Amino acid sequence: MLVDRVCKCCLLIIKFIRLLFCDLFSILVAVIINLEQLISSFYRLMKNIERTFQIISYLQYPFMLLALFYCGKSIYDNFALGIKDTFLPNLNTALMLIGIGVSFSALQDSTKTQNNFSKKIWQNKKKGAIALLVMTCMVLFFFVAGGIGYFTATSSILEEISMGLIVLGIGYMGLLSVAINMYKYQQSLLQE
Fold first, then answer.
1. H, E, C per residue of 111-140
2. More confident residue, 6 or 89
């Protein structure tokens, strides 16, 4: 009787384990099938993602125009309205908007040049290296000036302008990354 109960219990445990493994196996098969469909969908999406990022990169222009507006606004405020203390706040806003605009420009396709002038620069080894050096120096300047200004600022507006310089440096760092990729790509085309 006890042996019979132990045998039934063992059989139940074996059936449970078998069902569990069969269910796990069927779940695993379903996951693999869905994963294959997911990967193919992702591949189709990735074909269009470069185009999507290229379209999103055009958001740089409204931000640049808005930054230009804030640069002109302080001049207008000074001469037309006689308000003299708007220059620094408008400068901070312009720096932030330029940084955001440059960040959006970093989303563009680095395998394409925008015009023949930039193509001549990136395909020339010396001119491309000079352009990358200038861009690197600009990024370093924005970060160093922004960092020094932020930690040594005596007024809140100078602290805000320093933060604007740091945002501009972050945007230019993204642009520098795209420029490096564009330079490498254009140089590889020349070597082929």
1. CCCCCHHHHHHHHCHHHHHHHHHHHHHHHH
2. 89
Half-sphere exposure of 90 (CA within 13 A, CB side): 18
- Give the pLDDT score at 47: 67
Rounded CA gap, 32 and 136, in Å?
Answer: 46
Task: Render pLDDT for 66-76 as a digit per residue (tens, 0 to 9).
Answer: 988 888 888 88
pTM: 0.67
What's the rounded Cα separation, in Å, for the pair 160 and 31? 51
Please give the Cα distance from 66 to 150 (Å, whole number).
Answer: 24
Whole-angstrom distance, CA of residue 148 vs CA of residue 151: 5
- Which residue from 48, 171, 17 is spatially nearest to 103, judged by alpha carbons? 171
Alpha helix ranges (H) inside the chain: 2-56, 60-76, 87-105, 116-123, 125-152, 156-191
CB 133 within 8 A of CB 180: no
Do residues 174 and 102 lie in contact, with contact meaning Cβ atoms separated by under 8 Å? yes
